[in-house]
Amino acid sequence: MKEINIQCILLTSLAFLMGLSQFIVVGILNNLSDSFHISISYMGGLVTLFALVYAITTPIINLSVGHTPLYRVLIIFFMMFAIGNLLTAIANDFAMLIVSRILTALASGPSISIAITFAAAIAPIEKRSWMVSWVFSGFSIASVFGVPLGTWISDNLNWRFIFWAIFSLSLILVFFINHLLPHNLKQSGNGGLIQQLTILSNKHILLGITIPVFNFAAIYTIYTYLKPLLIYKFSFSHNLIIFILFFYGFCGLISNQISGRIANVDWMKNLQKFLLIQIISLITIFLIGNFKWLSLIAIFTMALTMSVQNSPIQLYYMQIAKIHYPQSLVLASSFNSIFSNVGVAIGSAIGGYTVSSFGLGYLGLTGSIFSLLAIYVLILLNREIAN
Fold this sequence. Notes:
The protein is an all-alpha fold. It contains 19 helices and no strands. The N and C termini lie far apart (40 Å).
Protein backbone atom coordinates (compact mmCIF):
# COMPACT_ATOMS: atom_id res chain seq x y z
CA MET A 1 0.00 0.00 0.00
CA LYS A 2 2.93 2.33 0.75
CA GLU A 3 4.24 1.86 -2.79
CA ILE A 4 0.82 2.69 -4.25
CA ASN A 5 0.67 5.87 -2.16
CA ILE A 6 4.08 6.96 -3.48
CA GLN A 7 3.00 6.23 -7.05
CA CYS A 8 -0.20 8.19 -6.44
CA ILE A 9 1.85 11.19 -5.26
CA LEU A 10 4.00 10.95 -8.40
CA LEU A 11 1.01 10.76 -10.77
CA THR A 12 -0.71 13.62 -8.94
CA SER A 13 2.50 15.67 -9.22
CA LEU A 14 2.56 15.09 -12.97
CA ALA A 15 -1.02 16.34 -13.21
CA PHE A 16 -0.14 19.31 -11.00
CA LEU A 17 2.61 20.51 -13.35
CA MET A 18 0.44 19.97 -16.43
CA GLY A 19 -2.43 21.83 -14.78
CA LEU A 20 -0.17 24.68 -13.70
CA SER A 21 1.27 25.07 -17.19
CA GLN A 22 -2.22 25.17 -18.70
CA PHE A 23 -4.09 27.19 -16.08
CA ILE A 24 -1.45 29.81 -15.26
CA VAL A 25 -2.19 31.63 -18.52
CA VAL A 26 -5.53 32.65 -17.00
CA GLY A 27 -3.76 34.22 -14.01
CA ILE A 28 -1.14 36.06 -16.06
CA LEU A 29 -3.29 37.08 -19.04
CA ASN A 30 -2.84 40.77 -18.28
CA ASN A 31 0.93 40.40 -17.90
CA LEU A 32 1.30 38.48 -21.15
CA SER A 33 -0.80 41.11 -22.88
CA ASP A 34 1.56 43.82 -21.64
CA SER A 35 4.73 41.86 -22.50
CA PHE A 36 3.77 41.05 -26.07
CA HIS A 37 1.57 44.13 -26.71
CA ILE A 38 -1.48 42.00 -27.56
CA SER A 39 -5.07 42.73 -26.46
CA ILE A 40 -6.50 40.65 -23.60
CA SER A 41 -9.27 39.10 -25.73
CA TYR A 42 -6.70 38.17 -28.41
CA MET A 43 -4.24 36.82 -25.83
CA GLY A 44 -7.09 34.72 -24.44
CA GLY A 45 -6.85 32.83 -27.72
CA LEU A 46 -3.81 31.07 -26.22
CA VAL A 47 -6.22 29.15 -24.00
CA THR A 48 -8.31 28.17 -27.03
CA LEU A 49 -5.21 27.21 -29.05
CA PHE A 50 -3.80 25.05 -26.25
CA ALA A 51 -7.10 23.23 -25.81
CA LEU A 52 -7.58 22.64 -29.55
CA VAL A 53 -4.08 21.24 -30.04
CA TYR A 54 -4.57 19.07 -26.95
CA ALA A 55 -7.92 17.75 -28.15
CA ILE A 56 -6.88 17.11 -31.76
CA THR A 57 -3.43 15.55 -31.25
CA THR A 58 -4.05 13.46 -28.13
CA PRO A 59 -6.24 10.78 -29.76
CA ILE A 60 -3.92 10.59 -32.78
CA ILE A 61 -0.89 10.04 -30.55
CA ASN A 62 -2.70 7.62 -28.25
CA LEU A 63 -3.78 5.53 -31.23
CA SER A 64 -0.09 5.11 -32.06
CA VAL A 65 1.01 3.85 -28.63
CA GLY A 66 0.49 0.19 -29.54
CA HIS A 67 2.34 -2.20 -27.23
CA THR A 68 5.17 0.16 -26.26
CA PRO A 69 5.75 0.07 -22.47
CA LEU A 70 3.71 2.95 -21.11
CA TYR A 71 6.39 4.23 -18.73
CA ARG A 72 8.67 4.79 -21.74
CA VAL A 73 5.97 6.69 -23.65
CA LEU A 74 5.32 8.81 -20.56
CA ILE A 75 9.01 9.70 -20.24
CA ILE A 76 9.24 10.77 -23.89
CA PHE A 77 6.21 13.02 -23.75
CA PHE A 78 7.01 14.51 -20.38
CA MET A 79 10.43 15.47 -21.70
CA MET A 80 8.61 17.20 -24.58
CA PHE A 81 6.42 18.91 -21.99
CA ALA A 82 9.52 20.17 -20.19
CA ILE A 83 11.00 21.54 -23.43
CA GLY A 84 7.72 23.27 -24.31
CA ASN A 85 7.75 25.13 -20.99
CA LEU A 86 11.40 26.04 -21.47
CA LEU A 87 10.52 27.64 -24.82
CA THR A 88 7.69 29.57 -23.14
CA ALA A 89 10.13 30.87 -20.53
CA ILE A 90 12.53 32.22 -23.18
CA ALA A 91 9.95 33.31 -25.80
CA ASN A 92 10.91 36.75 -27.16
CA ASP A 93 7.96 37.25 -29.50
CA PHE A 94 4.35 36.15 -29.82
CA ALA A 95 5.11 33.62 -32.58
CA MET A 96 7.59 31.78 -30.37
CA LEU A 97 5.09 31.87 -27.51
CA ILE A 98 2.50 30.21 -29.75
CA VAL A 99 4.97 27.49 -30.82
CA SER A 100 5.88 26.79 -27.19
CA ARG A 101 2.25 26.44 -26.17
CA ILE A 102 1.53 24.11 -29.10
CA LEU A 103 4.42 21.83 -28.09
CA THR A 104 3.30 21.86 -24.44
CA ALA A 105 -0.28 21.01 -25.38
CA LEU A 106 0.85 18.26 -27.74
CA ALA A 107 2.80 16.60 -24.92
CA SER A 108 0.23 17.17 -22.15
CA GLY A 109 -2.57 15.08 -23.65
CA PRO A 110 -0.72 11.76 -23.95
CA SER A 111 1.01 12.36 -20.60
CA ILE A 112 -2.18 12.72 -18.58
CA SER A 113 -3.86 9.87 -20.50
CA ILE A 114 -1.05 7.49 -19.56
CA ALA A 115 -0.95 8.79 -15.98
CA ILE A 116 -4.66 7.93 -15.64
CA THR A 117 -4.04 4.51 -17.21
CA PHE A 118 -1.34 3.84 -14.61
CA ALA A 119 -3.65 5.00 -11.80
CA ALA A 120 -6.45 2.66 -12.89
CA ALA A 121 -4.05 -0.26 -13.45
CA ILE A 122 -1.93 -0.20 -10.29
CA ALA A 123 -4.70 0.52 -7.74
CA PRO A 124 -6.83 -2.29 -6.29
CA ILE A 125 -10.44 -2.23 -7.44
CA GLU A 126 -11.75 -0.69 -4.22
CA LYS A 127 -9.17 2.14 -4.48
CA ARG A 128 -9.45 2.78 -8.23
CA SER A 129 -11.88 5.70 -8.17
CA TRP A 130 -9.94 7.22 -5.25
CA MET A 131 -6.64 7.08 -7.13
CA VAL A 132 -8.08 8.39 -10.39
CA SER A 133 -9.74 11.26 -8.51
CA TRP A 134 -6.39 12.16 -6.94
CA VAL A 135 -4.70 12.29 -10.33
CA PHE A 136 -7.40 14.69 -11.48
CA SER A 137 -6.93 16.56 -8.19
CA GLY A 138 -3.44 17.45 -9.35
CA PHE A 139 -5.10 19.97 -11.67
CA SER A 140 -7.13 21.39 -8.81
CA ILE A 141 -4.06 21.62 -6.57
CA ALA A 142 -2.44 23.61 -9.38
CA SER A 143 -5.43 25.95 -9.23
CA VAL A 144 -5.33 26.19 -5.42
CA PHE A 145 -1.63 26.85 -4.94
CA GLY A 146 0.09 27.16 -8.30
CA VAL A 147 -2.08 29.72 -10.06
CA PRO A 148 -2.35 32.21 -7.15
CA LEU A 149 1.39 31.91 -6.41
CA GLY A 150 2.23 32.15 -10.10
CA THR A 151 -0.03 35.19 -10.45
CA TRP A 152 1.74 36.87 -7.52
CA ILE A 153 5.15 36.08 -9.04
CA SER A 154 3.98 37.45 -12.38
CA ASP A 155 2.56 40.65 -10.85
CA ASN A 156 5.55 41.33 -8.59
CA LEU A 157 8.54 39.71 -10.33
CA ASN A 158 8.35 38.17 -13.80
CA TRP A 159 5.97 35.66 -15.39
CA ARG A 160 8.91 33.83 -17.01
CA PHE A 161 10.07 32.50 -13.62
CA ILE A 162 6.96 30.32 -13.48
CA PHE A 163 7.83 28.43 -16.65
CA TRP A 164 11.47 28.06 -15.62
CA ALA A 165 10.20 26.39 -12.43
CA ILE A 166 7.87 24.06 -14.37
CA PHE A 167 10.74 23.09 -16.67
CA SER A 168 13.06 22.27 -13.76
CA LEU A 169 10.47 20.27 -11.81
CA SER A 170 9.50 18.33 -14.94
CA LEU A 171 13.04 17.03 -15.32
CA ILE A 172 13.01 15.83 -11.71
CA LEU A 173 9.72 13.99 -12.24
CA VAL A 174 11.07 12.23 -15.33
CA PHE A 175 13.69 10.62 -13.06
CA PHE A 176 10.98 9.35 -10.68
CA ILE A 177 8.80 8.08 -13.54
CA ASN A 178 11.63 5.80 -14.56
CA HIS A 179 12.24 4.51 -11.03
CA LEU A 180 8.79 4.34 -9.44
CA LEU A 181 6.31 3.26 -12.12
CA PRO A 182 6.03 -0.37 -13.30
CA HIS A 183 7.85 -1.10 -16.56
CA ASN A 184 5.61 -3.96 -17.66
CA LEU A 185 2.35 -2.08 -18.20
CA LYS A 186 1.29 -2.13 -21.85
CA GLN A 187 -1.93 -1.66 -23.75
CA SER A 188 -3.75 -4.98 -24.20
CA GLY A 189 -5.48 -6.20 -27.33
CA ASN A 190 -4.13 -6.63 -30.83
CA GLY A 191 -6.15 -4.06 -32.74
CA GLY A 192 -4.67 -1.56 -35.16
CA LEU A 193 -5.77 2.02 -35.59
CA ILE A 194 -9.14 1.14 -37.11
CA GLN A 195 -9.88 -1.44 -34.43
CA GLN A 196 -9.03 1.07 -31.68
CA LEU A 197 -11.38 3.63 -33.20
CA THR A 198 -14.31 1.20 -33.09
CA ILE A 199 -14.96 2.35 -29.52
CA LEU A 200 -16.32 5.57 -31.02
CA SER A 201 -19.14 3.59 -32.63
CA ASN A 202 -20.55 2.86 -29.19
CA LYS A 203 -23.57 5.12 -28.64
CA HIS A 204 -23.03 5.25 -24.88
CA ILE A 205 -19.49 6.53 -25.48
CA LEU A 206 -20.70 9.07 -28.07
CA LEU A 207 -23.22 10.49 -25.64
CA GLY A 208 -20.80 10.32 -22.71
CA ILE A 209 -18.01 12.31 -24.38
CA THR A 210 -20.29 15.32 -24.90
CA ILE A 211 -20.77 15.74 -21.13
CA PRO A 212 -17.22 17.07 -20.47
CA VAL A 213 -17.49 19.18 -23.64
CA PHE A 214 -20.54 21.07 -22.39
CA ASN A 215 -19.45 21.11 -18.74
CA PHE A 216 -16.06 22.71 -19.43
CA ALA A 217 -17.44 25.00 -22.12
CA ALA A 218 -19.74 26.40 -19.42
CA ILE A 219 -16.91 26.81 -16.89
CA TYR A 220 -14.29 28.24 -19.25
CA THR A 221 -16.63 30.84 -20.64
CA ILE A 222 -16.14 32.46 -17.22
CA TYR A 223 -12.78 31.06 -16.05
CA THR A 224 -10.72 32.20 -19.06
CA TYR A 225 -11.68 35.79 -18.38
CA LEU A 226 -11.95 35.52 -14.59
CA LYS A 227 -9.09 37.90 -13.85
CA PRO A 228 -10.34 40.65 -16.22
CA LEU A 229 -13.85 40.07 -14.81
CA LEU A 230 -12.59 40.54 -11.25
CA ILE A 231 -10.57 43.65 -12.16
CA TYR A 232 -12.74 45.51 -14.67
CA LYS A 233 -16.26 44.36 -13.78
CA PHE A 234 -16.03 43.93 -10.01
CA SER A 235 -13.10 46.31 -9.28
CA PHE A 236 -11.23 43.96 -6.93
CA SER A 237 -7.62 44.90 -6.10
CA HIS A 238 -4.73 42.80 -7.45
CA ASN A 239 -3.82 41.60 -3.94
CA LEU A 240 -7.37 40.46 -3.24
CA ILE A 241 -7.51 38.68 -6.59
CA ILE A 242 -4.65 36.42 -5.43
CA PHE A 243 -6.82 35.22 -2.53
CA ILE A 244 -9.86 34.88 -4.78
CA LEU A 245 -7.91 32.67 -7.20
CA PHE A 246 -6.66 30.62 -4.26
CA PHE A 247 -10.18 30.03 -2.94
CA TYR A 248 -11.47 29.31 -6.45
CA GLY A 249 -8.83 26.60 -6.82
CA PHE A 250 -9.67 25.25 -3.36
CA CYS A 251 -13.30 24.91 -4.45
CA GLY A 252 -12.08 23.04 -7.54
CA LEU A 253 -10.09 20.68 -5.32
CA ILE A 254 -13.20 19.95 -3.26
CA SER A 255 -15.04 19.35 -6.55
CA ASN A 256 -12.52 16.65 -7.49
CA GLN A 257 -12.89 14.94 -4.13
CA ILE A 258 -16.67 14.95 -4.54
CA SER A 259 -16.04 13.41 -7.96
CA GLY A 260 -14.20 10.48 -6.42
CA ARG A 261 -16.94 9.93 -3.84
CA ILE A 262 -19.86 9.81 -6.30
CA ALA A 263 -18.04 7.68 -8.91
CA ASN A 264 -19.54 4.44 -7.59
CA VAL A 265 -22.74 5.78 -6.01
CA ASP A 266 -25.54 6.56 -8.50
CA TRP A 267 -23.19 8.98 -10.27
CA MET A 268 -25.62 10.03 -13.01
CA LYS A 269 -28.27 11.21 -10.59
CA ASN A 270 -25.72 13.02 -8.42
CA LEU A 271 -23.96 14.61 -11.40
CA GLN A 272 -27.30 15.91 -12.67
CA LYS A 273 -27.83 17.70 -9.34
CA PHE A 274 -24.43 19.38 -9.51
CA LEU A 275 -24.99 20.50 -13.09
CA LEU A 276 -28.28 22.07 -12.00
CA ILE A 277 -26.35 23.98 -9.31
CA GLN A 278 -23.91 25.04 -12.02
CA ILE A 279 -26.70 26.50 -14.16
CA ILE A 280 -28.12 28.42 -11.20
CA SER A 281 -24.70 29.86 -10.30
CA LEU A 282 -23.97 30.99 -13.87
CA ILE A 283 -27.36 32.66 -14.31
CA THR A 284 -26.86 34.31 -10.92
CA ILE A 285 -23.54 35.80 -12.11
CA PHE A 286 -25.40 37.30 -15.07
CA LEU A 287 -28.43 38.58 -13.15
CA ILE A 288 -26.69 40.16 -10.14
CA GLY A 289 -23.46 41.30 -11.79
CA ASN A 290 -23.73 44.70 -10.07
CA PHE A 291 -23.45 43.04 -6.64
CA LYS A 292 -19.84 41.92 -6.70
CA TRP A 293 -19.77 39.95 -3.44
CA LEU A 294 -22.89 37.96 -4.30
CA SER A 295 -21.44 37.36 -7.76
CA LEU A 296 -18.23 36.13 -6.14
CA ILE A 297 -20.20 33.58 -4.09
CA ALA A 298 -21.83 32.40 -7.34
CA ILE A 299 -18.39 32.06 -8.96
CA PHE A 300 -17.14 29.93 -6.06
CA THR A 301 -20.30 27.81 -6.28
CA MET A 302 -19.61 27.30 -9.98
CA ALA A 303 -16.07 26.19 -9.09
CA LEU A 304 -17.49 23.52 -6.77
CA THR A 305 -19.25 21.93 -9.77
CA MET A 306 -16.48 22.13 -12.36
CA SER A 307 -14.75 18.77 -11.77
CA VAL A 308 -17.52 16.59 -10.33
CA GLN A 309 -17.87 14.75 -13.64
CA ASN A 310 -14.17 13.77 -13.88
CA SER A 311 -13.87 10.45 -12.03
CA PRO A 312 -17.29 8.91 -12.77
CA ILE A 313 -17.28 9.73 -16.47
CA GLN A 314 -13.63 8.66 -16.90
CA LEU A 315 -14.20 5.33 -15.15
CA TYR A 316 -17.38 4.91 -17.22
CA TYR A 317 -15.35 5.20 -20.45
CA MET A 318 -12.67 2.80 -19.20
CA GLN A 319 -15.20 0.24 -17.99
CA ILE A 320 -16.75 0.08 -21.46
CA ALA A 321 -13.28 -0.14 -23.03
CA LYS A 322 -12.09 -2.88 -20.68
CA ILE A 323 -15.12 -5.07 -21.37
CA HIS A 324 -15.75 -4.43 -25.08
CA TYR A 325 -12.70 -2.61 -26.54
CA PRO A 326 -9.52 -3.69 -24.66
CA GLN A 327 -7.39 -2.55 -27.61
CA SER A 328 -8.66 1.01 -26.97
CA LEU A 329 -7.84 1.30 -23.27
CA VAL A 330 -5.29 4.14 -23.57
CA LEU A 331 -7.54 5.96 -26.03
CA ALA A 332 -10.50 5.60 -23.63
CA SER A 333 -8.37 6.84 -20.72
CA SER A 334 -7.85 10.08 -22.61
CA PHE A 335 -11.50 10.76 -23.46
CA ASN A 336 -12.25 12.93 -20.44
CA SER A 337 -9.14 15.08 -20.87
CA ILE A 338 -9.58 15.28 -24.67
CA PHE A 339 -13.21 16.32 -24.64
CA SER A 340 -12.79 18.53 -21.59
CA ASN A 341 -10.29 20.47 -23.69
CA VAL A 342 -12.74 20.59 -26.58
CA GLY A 343 -15.03 22.25 -24.06
CA VAL A 344 -12.23 24.57 -22.91
CA ALA A 345 -11.60 25.61 -26.53
CA ILE A 346 -15.29 26.25 -27.17
CA GLY A 347 -15.85 28.05 -23.87
CA SER A 348 -12.79 30.30 -24.14
CA ALA A 349 -13.58 31.14 -27.77
CA ILE A 350 -17.25 31.89 -27.07
CA GLY A 351 -16.19 33.79 -23.96
CA GLY A 352 -13.85 35.94 -26.05
CA TYR A 353 -16.63 36.65 -28.52
CA THR A 354 -19.03 37.48 -25.68
CA VAL A 355 -16.54 39.91 -24.10
CA SER A 356 -15.76 41.70 -27.36
CA SER A 357 -19.40 41.84 -28.55
CA PHE A 358 -21.47 42.24 -25.38
CA GLY A 359 -19.13 42.77 -22.45
CA LEU A 360 -17.91 40.86 -19.40
CA GLY A 361 -21.33 40.98 -17.76
CA TYR A 362 -22.85 38.50 -20.24
CA LEU A 363 -20.38 35.66 -19.65
CA GLY A 364 -22.62 33.97 -17.07
CA LEU A 365 -25.59 33.85 -19.42
CA THR A 366 -23.51 32.32 -22.21
CA GLY A 367 -22.03 29.70 -19.89
CA SER A 368 -25.42 28.64 -18.53
CA ILE A 369 -26.51 27.53 -22.01
CA PHE A 370 -23.72 24.94 -22.10
CA SER A 371 -24.64 23.68 -18.60
CA LEU A 372 -28.21 23.17 -19.77
CA LEU A 373 -26.95 21.12 -22.73
CA ALA A 374 -24.83 18.97 -20.37
CA ILE A 375 -27.88 18.10 -18.27
CA TYR A 376 -29.89 17.27 -21.39
CA VAL A 377 -27.21 14.84 -22.62
CA LEU A 378 -26.92 13.23 -19.18
CA ILE A 379 -30.67 12.58 -19.16
CA LEU A 380 -30.45 11.01 -22.63
CA LEU A 381 -27.53 8.80 -21.54
CA ASN A 382 -29.42 7.64 -18.47
CA ARG A 383 -32.38 6.65 -20.67
CA GLU A 384 -30.11 4.76 -23.09
CA ILE A 385 -28.51 2.76 -20.30
CA ALA A 386 -31.90 2.01 -18.74
CA ASN A 387 -33.11 0.62 -22.07
